[in-house]
Amino acid sequence: MKSNEYVYEIMGGNVKLVLYNLEKEISDIISEDVFKELVRLVKIFNFFDDYSELSLLNKHRKKDVSPELLEVLKKSLEYCKISRGAYDISLGKNILERKQGKNLSRINCSYRDILIKGKKVILNSSDAMIDLGSVAKGYIGDRISYFLKKAGVKSFFIDLRGDLLCYGKYAERVGIMSPREGVKIPFVLRIKNRAIATSGDYNQFWEDYSQSHILNKKDLISVTVVAKTLLEADLFASVVFVSSKKEREKIISKMKKYAVYTIDSELNKKDYNNFMSYINNEKQI
């Protein structure tokens, strides 16, 4: 098996791409095109870039948006409804306050204040500010996957800072990090033609885990989801993470296409929808 690996410094960290069974000259050209596409997509969704398309929508409150932003908004709002508002993309003001180490102010808005009319998006509350940090990486990963398939790449692996997508004839071994025990890896998954995303409170937080970048958290500290697309894996991991125990049990039981693994604050672990079928026999490492 021949492979070429590329690392891009973008999206606040490193994005890794592995292309299999290609001549290096061809692989290098494709890699350059992938980076250009990454830059283009990040410019749409970057919440912290004042001139991104998302930031301009938040600033102007009403805007015709690109097909990419429209697609992600529609899908995100669908999952806001599935979670009955526990997952809510309109809470960007609180996200900014948490990022700045401030106490969270009381805001009067919800995802219902994000209106879509054709290609026009309207923010119907002065408090509403859209943050797509929970889903943008997943969507970007799927778009890069589509880009590579269109270019004729038969097998590849994408790692967007922990959001992983594997396509083609080769399986990838993926370690799931313990959320409270440093780099300890309890087990390894083996994924093929699947995407995997983890939502947790342990990578981004201020002062302590209770002030993580994830708002509305309940008792969970880590959720891992295996799905066919990275967008779905990202969204469902976020929905499960912020839902109450009773609600998430209902949601997971209805959405059997997603394999789910949860860890709560007492370090109790639970798996759903055949998640353990992805565990490699060589899991003890």
CATH fold type of the largest domain: T-fold
Please name the fourth-level CATH homologous superfamily of the largest domain: ApbE-like domains
- CATH-level-2 architecture of the largest domain: Roll
Biggest β-sheet strands, sense, barrel: 8 strands, antiparallel
**Strand percentage:** 25-35%
Given this structure, which CATH class of the largest domain is correct?
Alpha Beta
Work out the helix count.
7
- The chain-level structural class is alpha+beta
Global mean pLDDT? 89
Radius of gyration: 19 Å
**Shape category:** globular
Instruction: Pick out the low-confidence regions.
Output: 204-212, 281-285
SSE order, as H and E?
Answer: EEHHEHHEEHEEEEEEEEHHEE
Strand order of the largest sheet: 1-2-6-7-10-13-14-15
In helices, the fraction of residues equals 25-40%
